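Q: Given only this backbone (117 positions), what sequence would you predict?
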């Protein structure tokens, strides 16, 4: 992206490649757009299934109400933008969950009554 807003973004080429791969995975009809069913499949795969109404709301949030499908440009703007879209948060959470171990190693620390909330 040649946009001035994104020039100072760290590791932009790597991020764009990752976004492209993630986007292509859910472009079910290979037309360059994620439709309602592609988004539904994405959310189910991420373990966060949504109703059709919630999915439509997510699409409206990403596209700004201009379309019923998410094109690649809107997807990248959402992922690089400062806006906190639900879809962006879910995708970021999935990447963090896949990259770091969630379970601590070793025995749990000793606790006493004073440390409880």
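A: Predicted residues:
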């Amino acid at each position: 992206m040649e946009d001035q807003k994104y020039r100072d973004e760290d590791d932009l080429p790597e991020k764009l490649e990752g976004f492209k791969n993630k986007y292509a995975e859910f472009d079910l009809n290979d037309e360059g757009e994620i439709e309602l069913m592609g988004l539904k499949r994405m959310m189910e795969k991420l373990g966060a299934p949504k109703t059709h109404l919630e999915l439509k709301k997510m699409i409206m949030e990403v596209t700004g109400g201009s379309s019923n499908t998410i094109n690649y440009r809107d997807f990248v703007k959402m992922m690089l933008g400062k806006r906190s879209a639900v879809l962006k948060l879910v995708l970021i959470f999935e990447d963090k969950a896949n990259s770091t171990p969630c379970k601590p190693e070793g025995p749990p620390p000793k606790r006493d009554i004073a440390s409880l909330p």
